[in-house]
Amino acid sequence: MEVVSQINGCSGDTAGKVIICKAAVAWGPGEPFVIEKVRVEPPQKMEVRVKILYSSICHTDLSAWKGEDEAQRVYPRIFGHEASGIVESVGEGVVDVAVGDHVIPLFNGECGTCRCCQNPNTNTCEKMGVNPMKSTMVHDGQTRFTTADERRQPIYHFLNTSTFSEFTVLESACVVKIDSEAPIKKMTLLSCGLSTGVGAAWNTANVEAGSTVAIFGLGAVGLAVAEGARARGASKIIGVDVNSHKSTIGKQFGITHFINPRDSHKPVHEIIMEMTNEGVDYSFECVGGVEVLRTAFLSTHIGWGTTVMLGIHTTPEMLPLHPMELFRGRKVVASIFGGFKGRTQIPHFAKQCILGVVKLDEFITDELPFEDINSAFKRLVDGRSLRCLLYL
């Protein structure tokens, strides 16, 4: 006989039981989220069920919710991938985390055994890497969410995580334990935005003291890049954004110069050339537009300039570069999750954050109850927040 537990907190013996809780369900592209009760199955082999405490909203959630990439249009679905929580129960074979551990989800997992995980030069994972097409669990190809009514309609997963729910089930490779003494609210930022931006500066580009940097797009990820470059001692950090308000915000994260492309008839890369003695050492494209990517590329110094691509490109447009342009020494690389191996390296990064190596508080601009998720999305669309934390 099936055992069901209706729960709002993490009290009581719920291991092995179906949990009925609240989740924000997306029923179609761009449709308002519906807060409703869902059934969350117990974790199966190599899976972990987590009580989500905080979940924030990233632009990746926004673009997926809008259905900008038709290939990702799988509904109904529970979005969300930047969060923090406590392990409620674990499935067979799980040894890296235990009930009661403080954890953050990893949209870019680390199985630890594949050839990529064994290679120190990549944070790609052949088995559990980021995959926007994946909507079910590996163990049996089924979902762990269904509607709580008599229909028992499957609700699909998103980016290995699905954190817009009071409880979620993840592959154990997509969960990392963090120090229980760390401020768990702030640790939410490490499961995507902060790690992606800071890591791009530290791991992918390896920004050196005294180097020059240009960042295109000053959302949370772009500002995290700035924070990472500031922490590394970059001498000049140029922020580029069409929102002039980002000039003031950017100063908090190390932006030394600001350009609004709408304020000048001169191409942005020419302005940057003049400001930096023929180009920056590193540029970061955090928008997801091919023309912005080309501008970022042209803004780097010939001979050694590196452009790091972080923006998500949802259109089928190809890179706007002529192959011969690469023979002048500039290069373009992409960065997923800031180059961090999630389970191996994030615990150390968390300790650095706690010690104040990079800022955390300034990224949290709003806190709202989970039920206000639609308002939180609107704030992001309107450009009024960096990270809005939803508390569950």
Automatic annotation (TrEMBL):
Its cofactor is Zn(2+). InterPro entries: ADH-like_C, ADH-like_N, ADH_Zn_CS, GroES-like_sf, NAD(P)-bd_dom_sf. GO terms for molecular function: alcohol dehydrogenase (NAD+) activity; S-(hydroxymethyl)glutathione dehydrogenase [NAD(P)+] activity; zinc ion binding. Residues 220-341 form the Alcohol dehydrogenase-like C-terminal domain. It holds the Pfam family ADH_zinc_N. Residues 45-141 form the Alcohol dehydrogenase-like N-terminal domain. It catalyses: a primary alcohol + NAD(+) = an aldehyde + NADH + H(+); a secondary alcohol + NAD(+) = a ketone + NADH + H(+). Keywords: Metal-binding, NAD, Oxidoreductase, Zinc. One of its GO terms (biological process) is formaldehyde catabolic process. GO terms for cellular component: cytosol. PROSITE patterns: ADH_ZINC. Its EC number is 1.1.1.1. Homodimer. Belongs to the zinc-containing alcohol dehydrogenase family. Class-III subfamily. This is alcohol dehydrogenase. It comes from Cucurbita maxima. The lineage of its organism: Eukaryota, Viridiplantae, Streptophyta, Embryophyta, Tracheophyta.
